[in-house]
Request: fold
Amino acid sequence: MREKAGLALFFWVGSGLLIRLYQALIFEVQPGMPKKKTKKAAAKRFKKSARGKILFAKAGKGHLLSSKGRKRKRNLRRKGVLADAEVKRITNLLAG
Reply:
């Protein structure tokens, strides 16, 4: 009963810091929190290969394909490998 009264008091004060302090005292706070979330937009567009390279689908094969050559369309089907300059940024988005 006392815990509920204390909790109501902290919420009545309305300070986020006091609520967090109360939670830290009552509940076990795990180190490494909060957990890192995967950016879902990046997860839909990029994939990590078995050797650690970042792969993506090439642009330009959605429409107006009649004016593009057979070889060009065939090469657009293959996955592209991300440049080294972008790997760190995209890996950070996919880490989760």
